Amino acid sequence: MKYLVALSRIFVGVLFIISGLIKLNDPVGFSFKLEEYFSQGVLDLPFLMPYALAIAIVVVIIEVLLGIMLLIGFKSKFTVWSLLAMIVFFTFLTFYSAYFNKVTDCGCFGDAVKLTPWESFTKDVILLVLILILVLGVKHIKGLFGKKLNTAVLIISLVGCIAFCYQVLNHLPSKDFRPYKIGANIEEGMSVPNDAPKAIYEYAWKFEVNGQEQIILTNGDYPSVEGEFIGVETTEIQKGYEPPVHDFTIEKDSGDFTTSMLQKDKLVMVIAYDLAKSNYAVFDEVKNVTDEAIRKGYKVIAMSASSNEIGNALKREHDLNFDFYFTDETTLKTIVRSNPAVLVLEKGTILQKVHYNDLDELEFKEPDNGIYFDFNLKKSLDSIMVLDQKYRANPNMETWGLQMEIDSSNLKYVEKIIAQSGYPGKSMVGDKAGKAAWYVIQHSNKIDKYIDIIKEASGQNELPFRLYAMMLDRHLTNQNKPQIYGTQSSSYYINSPKELTFMWPLKNKDSVNIWRRRAGFGSTFEESAIDMYGEGFELKYYTIEEINRLIPELIK
Questions:
Q1: What angle is formed at CA 458 by the lines to CA 456 and CA 464, rounded to 5 degrees?
Q2: What is d(CA 45, CA 36) in angstroms, rounded to the nearest whole number?
Q3: SS3 for 342?
Q4: How far apart are CA 220 and CA 238, in angstroms?
Q5: How many CA atoms lie within 13 A of 336 on its CB side?
Q6: Distance between CA 533 and CA 539 in Å, rounded?
Q7: What is the pLDDT of residue 106?
Q8: I need a labelling partner for 32 at 20 to 30 A (CA). Which of 283, 377, 415, 482 fits?
Q9: What is the pLDDT of residues 135-155, one digit of tens each?
Q10: Structure pTM?
């Protein structure tokens, strides 16, 4: 009995210390697990959910201290009876969870070791047996040190646990066991190996054959039975491979942007699983660091499970220069234990991850092209874009004159910017504002002067190539030459009031749609003509010579 007690003492003590320290490394994560247990679908104790973090901290510290007390033999009877009470409670909890399939992972070892409910229950039963041995043989548990030294060890352990807990709560877990740790690639975490085991299901098919119910078991194939089908029950008899990352999405306005975002070379994610529970005071600092990231060419997005209304309100309040995307709340809680937090990624690989208390530790690479984002210029070009379209939608004689005055003013401003800094493209002012200067030039008589600059900007991915294609077509039509991409049309009045409306002649009639597809246009030449003039438009393929003969007084 003496040796059995000694072995049980070491095993139980070490296991409690390890289990407690793993959870103490991530008390927020353990609190999320307790919230699952307290929820209405499990123990139905919702009034305890606001106190889940405090309960988690107390429980794991007690768990560590009881393990230490058992090893050093401090207050043996109190220790073993406390251990018994704790393991009886957790044995009941894991049995309840396993039997009713309520919580799929008990969280006994945090994210370090995942146990199924029945594995957790089995582990607790073994511990219960070992602790009962300790209760029966408590007289064999002797103190390793004197009373004062034992007390000192316990006090030092308590202080150490509190200090460690304070550190991880105000920063991040010292050891990250999750699939979103620094260095992990999210896309790789979502992939399933070709040789991964597949889930195997057993199907119980019910038929009525000759007035009697008959059940036939298969692994999926519909059985050949001459009888009336009643129903089928499906049972998973072997689990398939589940990738470590399986619920990660980046969604906005019913669109899925996961793949495109994870392909970006420079991406910053602001994570806030619940904006209602976020620390609002730090969003001014979040703005500062994200503005720096944007200035250096990073794409910045926020990911939250909160509504668009809350996200947009927060964006306006703090003048944030990024948009909010939707992601599952549990996934966001798994990614990082801070609300908010910031991640830096490169093509889906997590390079940096910080708590909101450590935002000053973030480091951003300088832009490869030497172009820094200019927020003031972006705002100016956003205004230019609005002015460029002010009267174009519904023009008349009066408003068109006003639009011409605006265009003239806009052109002077854009020419000044280009002369000082080159074309103000995506790197300098973002996707939307990076098109403003193009619109101004496209609507001016200076296309011939700037067409090469537009071509260079599109070649450097500062501007979509299709915009250069449109300007090139207009440049060619201005020179009375055939267009290449089929983007330009004209209307002339001949012997008023007869009107001639046509798509400008093509240089490459037979291959125009190939050129359009390469340029990034989503429609064919024929479809674009209908979009411009409606279903009743009669498309004719004129040549330059034919147009010159039809309208000699207008085309020189």
A1: 165
A2: 10
A3: strand
A4: 14
A5: 25
A6: 10
A7: 52
A8: 283
A9: 888 888 888 888 889 899 999
A10: 0.80
